[in-house]
Amino acid sequence: MKKIFLLVFLVPIFSFAQTSDSAFIKAIADNILVSRMPYNNLHTLTKKIGGRLAGSPQMVKAEAWGYKALQEAGADKVIMQQCMVPHWVRGGKDMASVSYKSANGKTQTMQLNVLALGNSVGSGVKGVQAPLIRVNSFDELEKRKDEIKGKIVFYNVPFEETFVQTFQAYGKNVVYRAIGASRAAKYGAVAVLVRSMTHAMDNNPHTGALYYLDSIKQIPAAAVGLRDVEKLDTLFDNNMVLTAALFTYGNMLPDTIGHNIVGELTGTEFPNEVITVGGHLDSWDVNEGATDDGTGIVQTIEILRAFKALGYQPKHTMHFVLFANEENGTRGAKKYAEEAKANNEKHIFALESDAGGFTPRGFGFGVSDTVWNKIYTWRNLFEPYGGDGFVKGGGDADIDPLHEMFNTPVAGLRPDTQRYFDVHHAVSDVFEAVNIRELKLGAINMAALLYLVDKYGL
Amino acid sequence: MKKIFLLVFLVPIFSFAQTSDSAFIKAIADNILVSRMPYNNLHTLTKKIGGRLAGSPQMVKAEAWGYKALQEAGADKVIMQQCMVPHWVRGGKDMASVSYKSANGKTQTMQLNVLALGNSVGSGVKGVQAPLIRVNSFDELEKRKDEIKGKIVFYNVPFEETFVQTFQAYGKNVVYRAIGASRAAKYGAVAVLVRSMTHAMDNNPHTGALYYLDSIKQIPAAAVGLRDVEKLDTLFDNNMVLTAALFTYGNMLPDTIGHNIVGELTGTEFPNEVITVGGHLDSWDVNEGATDDGTGIVQTIEILRAFKALGYQPKHTMHFVLFANEENGTRGAKKYAEEAKANNEKHIFALESDAGGFTPRGFGFGVSDTVWNKIYTWRNLFEPYGGDGFVKGGGDADIDPLHEMFNTPVAGLRPDTQRYFDVHHAVSDVFEAVNIRELKLGAINMAALLYLVDKYGL
Q: Is B422 on the interface with A (CB under 8 A)?
């Protein structure tokens, strides 16, 4: 009888809370779905500013633009957090080719579509010419370590197509891009070519950060487009003896100055307790950085604009952060956590969007079981906007330092992943490949989550 | 006690069934995710054959291609069901302009990006010139019916942006395209312009079928691109007096011959009980018919191929149907139901994909409560492939006659809807706007549903 009484009593309260919350979330959605700001902001960032690697003039432009955009969206204040960032430049047009003797004894040469990996050393104008050896894994590299000396190693590790979630395929293969050069250099390789991390049907190479391991010789490294990979495979499968030539011009200049741009809505009740939302402002140099991570930036600014437009002033301080240098150093992320510590801020939650502006599926949460159980009760509120796929495990590169330093609960937006690796770090990451309504739905789900965390705490 | 016994007893059986089913569905997924056939088929259909309106030479080509594709995918037999289809031709390049006097008294003329609506009569080379009147609804048309005579009516009904599910916006507005011409002609309008059914940011007009109401004069009709709509709005809002000129050349020729192409896997246990899956082979003339409905066609063929590749012969007969003439007559759909009746087939389930090859969200079911309750228990099996969003209400134009005639349970694939109206019936509905992995995931979810219906019945 008591239980029944409690149920009768509790249900209406819960319903009221949910109704009130769903009404506010609907107001957010209605506001964002008719807003022209996301289109305009993404257009400016991609078409007027373009690719913006840490240290580049475009990144400086992007910082100034971001500062103004946060102000105009209604931030109580905007802070620039200065940090030192790596300054890698591509330095020229990357080129590669392979030569082999055809059946009639004539030498054939095939051009390859390549992009030097970020942070890599260049071959310079003299280039690197050497026999090309194909390996399909680090295991194979180890087995054949005596064959590697003086050669260019071609890592041909297929991007797994049967993983429905494409980030699994990336997670499995990215190590070849990240440290493949050093692993091969250890055995005397003079350069590496890496199969691009994609299942796109085009031939665009996909660049990305490489990290040289200490005390191993730094050698040039480039990603190869997939259709060219297929041609190479055919040659290898026919036992052709291949010589490759690679020309890259990468150069790591001294560290330079970059900034996180932080827009703030000051909390009315808990000004020293911070909720963070952000994306990263930098991108690779070869594209417009639309999906990676222009969309996260535009969503972050749009959420601020919508909160202000609806007259919503949070109880906790909210930081809308455009992070510096995610792509090849995550120095902005570290700086943000260090500043939080220096300012004695209490960071109660952080959310990042760095998986594209595709239609939202949900969030991944890096939180305790207690927090997870609380958040999970909000799930139905996200169903109308497609973001109710809550999974455990999450966060993102720019907010992980907060999580590590303060055990801050973190989450990453989970958009649909099918299109992400079509454009990731390739020339095809442009404005036209973004659907603005999908981007907006991501922002709506993110805003809803921030609102609920602010209202109910964690 | 008995209840507990039952639970203990039932759970393992259920788990075993689910495990076995999930394993088979995983096998389907693994097979389709690495298949090159969807890419190749969609490429051929869109790039080699192209737009294929009923009665067009391209549609004849598409039928021959579809017949062969179903054979090659492994159909036990392929049947061509002949039916008479409407034969509308565009007849020329649609053009429109508006003229008005600017502040300095000079006449300004602005070209509009237009497409004649399907089935509409043409103005011919003389065109139609008349004052342009803007109405925002049929209600406004009725209120201003005395102003309509001798004018061109411009239906400017905004495509609702706050509906998260974009088909709701289409459902609300499509009546203006379908019968707006007749409604205006009733009051003496000489032509109509209709705001395109889209929230795309480009200026492509979106055509689609118009139906003239009996005994009302048939007048020319065209869709206008959205950016031009905005310009017209500005002119109207500034009280400019506008004269429009419209040149269209549409012509409805006598009915001609078309065909449904039906690939069959003959049922091992219930050969006279039929499960249907399909899409429509026809498309509009102005694009490649990639999303509408090349993707549904390619999915249908791919499911057949995967079943054969896995050695799966269904218990019930399965029909893989490429329907004729969905766009401007649904004569193929009617023919298919008539043939089912004539052949005394029992149709136990029908599934259509005609909402694009976008990442799947689930299915809409037009089924009884009993069937719904059964199907709903399968839902978790779809979760790994994103298709677990089961909702009531569904079916599609090509399978609705089956539902009406035999009360056959029907379902439509529910892909994500955000991008659909960017390309729907516009020149932008091309191969490049389709992501093949998203298309494949749709096929995987569809194949899983067909498999479960075949195994467990409905």
A: yes
